[in-house]
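FAQ: What does the model actually see?

It sees only this:
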Amino acid sequence: MRSLIRESLDLLNDGTPFALAVIIGHKGSTPRTSGSKMLVRPNKGISGSIGGGLVEAEVIDVCVDLLDRSRSKTMDFNLNQEIKAGMDMGCGGSLTVWLRSFVPPCPSEQIELWQTLADLEAKGKKALAVTRIAADKTAEISLVLEQGEVAGPGMLPKALIDAAGENRFTGPGPVRQFYGLDEFIIEPLIRPDRLFIFGAGHVGFQLAKMAHLTDFSCVVTDDRAEFANEARFPHAAEIRVLDDFSSAFDGLDIDGNAYIVILTRGHLHDQTVLEQALKTDAAYIGMIGSKKKKKQIYDNLMAKGVAQARLEQVYAPIGLKIKAETPAEIAVSIMGELISVRAENKENPS
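And it is asked to produce this:
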């Protein structure tokens, strides 16, 4: 999926008005949590979602009303019985949603900042987007880069810069802060969850399509160019064709936002990839295959010195137990497991 940052940049460059809606606070049971975003166009077309139902419909209407000029607005929602009924879900919490409209002509400096933000996102770099909201509800954005450098028009309070240097704004969602009479919305640039698929066969093909639909940035690796190519994987962020799986992780940056799925065409290749994967900090490592295959590979790796406790952290056989048979069904079971692990990681960050 194209990120909302990249989509916003394209609209800014095209001179097309739009608005962004961001959940900046939530309590209790809500359909979406802080950090959820939605882009709204003049025709009420949207990208992203803040949860659907009556809340989202009302926010869309207000976003369109804001498109007469660039400004911002904050809306609070209590999900009472009336709203809950309209959403058809058992929510009982509250939401704070921040809306900001972008109406041309937009200053070139603002577009340059969004370009910088898109470039940082593409490279997986950290940054903070800090928006100062003035008394007249106009807004100006600045960036606090990883080394503490500030880019943008605004003079940011020293207390905010100090807090950024101490990594106080590294959570999954935006933070609303007041410094003196000024209001600031501070949004961490979160590195996207990345799915590394080793094996571009039938299951890998189906899994990559689901990764695109569920907001994973997907990297596909295989040793067969006829399988691993852009024609088969048009939405993959990267496609890698190797001479040998012994170099499967060369040049890859695997961190706690990485998910590894091993689906190669043979036991030996799976073992080779798994041995390398176990040396990473990936949030998830899963390997396809039977219990017999798992035991054989684990015995081989333990004979090479791999700790049993480390092997027990691998999801194998991979996927949820839904009696999947076809490649698409197996991919569904894997994706269900990935989504579950990702949600647990966001609820309990390490």
